[in-house]
């Protein structure tokens, strides 16, 4: 090779000799966020120390390696020309020696590669080295020297780390990611609120103590105000009460905007759901209702945001006394004092010494509280079978239907005097209840890990629900609380005798801006993975926790394959939908797909999707589908206020939703007929089904129990067995599928009988032959 050729090759090689220190660029947003934390640090006693970033190691199981193509190097065959072709067999031995060296593993761990990442990075690096046609000249020369014995295997490390940072880009910008996910001083996220001195008044008291009433009176007297409630029903109530009192008030929920001004100008007062409150609009008075929900695993972040961020001269918070100490501590971090006003219950309520035990012992004004819709269907049917009318309220009913059922129950001239409901009555509805009857004290909930489990209700929940009995200004001035079953009564008494557990933490949630900054550093990560890494790296002090994000991730994974920009994808994933409803999830997916095509979702398109118009329900299955369609309309309206151009037909969809609400109301009025029709359709092929598990009163005789069991079909007997019943209750198996399985089992048994007869015949023939041979 000529001298000129050598000089040319070495000039091209020079830029590879010094290892490249590729640093991940810092976005302007990241710098702004860090500056924002520093600017507001003077108002908080908690400081952010850069030294503490290393205190929480990241969960490296969330780091997904980026796929790299084994393309030829831009250097071409320079390495081969300078040295010689590499022997793949010898090269493999060299790489494996590097992998087994403990010193290399420890050195990599010091640079962020734990055992898991080290292994993944090595697999990728080995594949890259062995499969790439022409390696970069510097790497080729190093490997050639090691294979020939003139180099050391440790010389591979810089090139290995260079490759590791390509497939794990977060390694090079970990400090920036930690700064973005630092959630330890959330008070500093709201500079407008920190710029004013706010007065915080805590109205503390039990249910039906008038605490919210006092806060609302101050709200109505103010020049401007905002009410933040946990439910649409509560926002509607304050909206109507304010306007009826002559105080113009707007309504803002996730799915609805109602402005009193004909020209659409905002009123000085607004009633909203807490997620929709503005933290930049100045008010004289703000009311935050049910402040104890600041510790809610899923929605607690909304109360934290409102309490820390509302720009109001006076912040009135209403809730349980168990939150007083924590709110004081939280406000101490902002330098704001808390004035506490305590209230006592306006009407007394007592815990009865006897359980109801039988539906025959029901009286007017009774409310039976269940924690599953199946129990509601069963009990309401049994009540009406005794000639009594009952109202039904549960969470998935539309707000209009809930109000209709509440009005029916409250009307003294209506023959309906009994209410069957879930814990949805715990807040948001004014009901004239004399006696609360807990049908069960076991409720499904979601633990800190996002897992569903069955657990006894808390003291706070028992007080919230039981406190609905004997409401002030209702027909029943004194309330009573008891249970349906005798065994539950001692448990209820113990629950109500306890003190409510003090609130100790408040929820937080990553914002769209924070996720966008993460995406800048990790452009190849999915949204679900970005959120996982954010939570893994997040720093929170002892007063806060990161809210459960399983629902967010569920929606993110569902639409990951759909091409959307990050901000739109984030908004879609914050949509409040019930992931247990398959039809709603399917609609969500279709909405996202249509949106990604830049095609507006018109009223006609939605009608085709939901098969509108819909007829009245004929059974419970139809009613559940109508409720799902109502949720789809809610989803459309929710998205229409975030993407107005793409969801243009808000008025027509709302009109159809109101028509659907009327259809559902009619179906709920006839819910007993729907239940009867449903059970008839299930048991028709197998004979009539009489009686139901749990429907027999404690005074029924053993003979009656035997007769009822004898009349039950095989499907019902299977449903009463532990495994089948659990599968049906959990929704993993429907009665129809259970019936089909029973029919298949019966068919298989019939096939087995002839086969067994044939075997017996063969056995007899063989015996006969053997006997003849013996003779």
TrEMBL record:
Superkingdom per UniProt: Eukaryota
Class of this enzyme: hydrolase
Main location: mitochondrion
The entry's keywords: ATP-binding, Helicase, Hydrolase, Mitochondrion, Mitochondrion nucleoid, Nucleotide-binding, Transit peptide
Biased composition range(s): Polar residues: 698-707
Localization annotation: Mitochondrion matrix, Mitochondrion nucleoid
Molecular function GO terms recorded: ATP binding; hydrolase activity; RNA helicase activity
Bias (Low complexity): 41-55
Region Disordered, residue ranges: 35-58, 686-713, 745-775
GO annotation terms (biological process): mitochondrial RNA 3'-end processing
Family matches, as InterPro entries: DEXQc_SUV3, Helicase_C-like, P-loop_NTPase, RNA-DNA_Helicase, SUV3_C, Suv3_C_1, Suv3_DEXQc, Suv3_N
Catalysed reactions listed for this entry: ATP + H2O = ADP + phosphate + H(+)
Positions of transmembrane segments: none
The protein's required cofactors: Mn(2+); Mg(2+)
Family: Belongs to the helicase family.
Full protein name: ATP-dependent RNA helicase SUPV3L1, mitochondrial
Species whose genome carries this gene: Champsocephalus gunnari (Mackerel icefish)
